[in-house]
Amino acid sequence: MVFPRVCAARRLGRAVARGLSLREPSRPRLCSSGPRGARDEAPEARAYFTTPIFYVNAAPHIGHLYSALLADALCRHRRLRAPGAAAAATRFSTGTDEHGLKIQQAAAAAGLPPAELCDRVSAQFRRLFRDAGVSSTDFIRTTEARHRAAVQHFWAALRARGLLYKGLYEGWYCASDECFLPEAKVSRQPGPAGDPCPVSAESGHPVCWTKEENYIFRLSRFREPLRRWLRDNPQAITPEPFQRKVLQWLEEDLPDLSVSRKSSHLHWGIPVPGDDSQTIYVWLDALVNYLTVVGYPGAEFESWWPTTSHVIGKDILKFHAIYWPALLLGAGLSPPHRIYVHSHWTVRGQKMSKSLGNVVDPSSCLDRYTVDGFRYFLLRQGVPNWDCDYYEEKVVKLLDSELADALGGLLNRCTAQRMNPSGTYPAFCATCFPREPGLAGPSARAGAEDYALVSAVAALPRQVADNYADFQIYKALEAVSSCVRQTNGFVQRHAPWKLSWESPVDAPWLGTVLHVALECLRIFGTLLQPVTPSLADKLLSRLGVSATERGLGELAFLPRFYGHPCPFEGRKLGPETGLLFPRLDQSRACLVKVHRT
């Protein structure tokens, strides 16, 4: 979704043109995605990002990929702040949730043993994330032995603290959502025969009345500790509307929570330690995966857990923002550092559904739009606060406009043999583009809009860092796209193709125009690495930017403008790599495959 924005840089450019000087931007230390007040502090030594683990009852769809790409972009952005050191101090996990009644039922419907279904679908998720360039450091499956050991230890910690008791649990149960629901959260909808059938008011999935003896967690004890956690950490849940929603939930009744099911009803799961008649509730089992990955209950775990950031969909907010923090507190552990929440994807305005036949296959999208193209689309159009809509024409229009035409066209212009026959980073002429335009001499050629461009691109790394900290990656990409448009306007205004390298009057300005445009492209390529890693590598390689010059920590824009040497000036450009991003021919576009029932 593209939002219009008032460009403060334009106002600054007009002010500069009236005689003010343009201050040299500082090189801020780009801290991790922590709270606002901590942005100028040194980054934490470690960071641990997680996606939800995904149910294996069906093949992956674009919503699953979106969750993974959001976490991947956050992780990649952090690694760029200190290449090498940050990479070693950053962990990123994803995986599959393979226990529970829903998996048991899906396996039965497919005529497969549950373990075989889990193997098949988990492999699909692993393959999708590998193909999409998701840079996770761990792929966990809840059927692994290491996870079973972690869950059993966590259960023992709750039991040792007197937080589990056995009792009769009665209420509505939704197998699709794997949760119990109070009466207020159940509605009636006409069934196949027209009779009213009970369904979850939130998801619309069928529910059934369940009454059984289970182990129960004393959740009711944790209302005030959860409130205190959220009051003390106003950015614990981002974006803010989701934190506000959790606080509203904490104003409601918070009954104790069933954390097991009878093994005769649910056999596909982890047995309760010491009581084989009960199976541990699938959500407790699944949530502990975040601990398993960082070595719980070993010593290694203690140095990683305080830095945890969960990326989740809004449909599992209650599990992650109420049940999970309460369980952690109950086990003597701290809640996660941050919970980043995103909304869902619809298809042409409709919720994705197997019954509608509109569940978009993400692997087909990667083939059709390229890996970088589809990564860019999802992260550029996805807005965490509300649902976003997918349809083929939108993808093609966005990628052709922003990657093929605007960014790719700019790179092609500035590196073309005719425009840049020496194939180098041309020299910057300070008399043509003086830092203080009010004192400019007769050779000055830069105008107010050109100073506005310099201001905007100089501010871009900090703006992008702030957007990442606020979990607004789409705004970071909008800011980059806006600056790409400004840079194209700069090149179009000064028409370097009309200038001659042979003219002693034209040549210094021609070199300056290309130098500024190439510097802008270097900044864009560096900042796009978390979202379009291969495309960014192609762009930076064409500019001759080495692998050790692509970090964010020392990203200095246009140093010659501020009177400093530029390490790229006079350097040979990299080899020709062809089109940065070929246009997608919409007239030949084939519809992306969908999963059919």
UniProtKB/TrEMBL annotation:
Domain Methionyl/Leucyl tRNA synthetase: 48-414
Ranges annotated as spanning the membrane: none
Tree of life domain: Eukaryota
One Pfam match: Anticodon_3
Methionyl-tRNA synthetase anticodon-binding domain mapped to chain residues: 445-546
Keyword Protein biosynthesis: yes
CDD domains (UniProt xref): Anticodon_Ia_Met, MetRS_core
PANTHER family referenced in this protein's UniProt entry, alphabetically: METHIONINE--TRNA LIGASE, MITOCHONDRIAL (PTHR43326:SF1), METHIONYL-TRNA SYNTHETASE (PTHR43326)
Identification of the protein by name: Methionine--tRNA ligase, mitochondrial
Organism, as annotated: Pipistrellus kuhlii
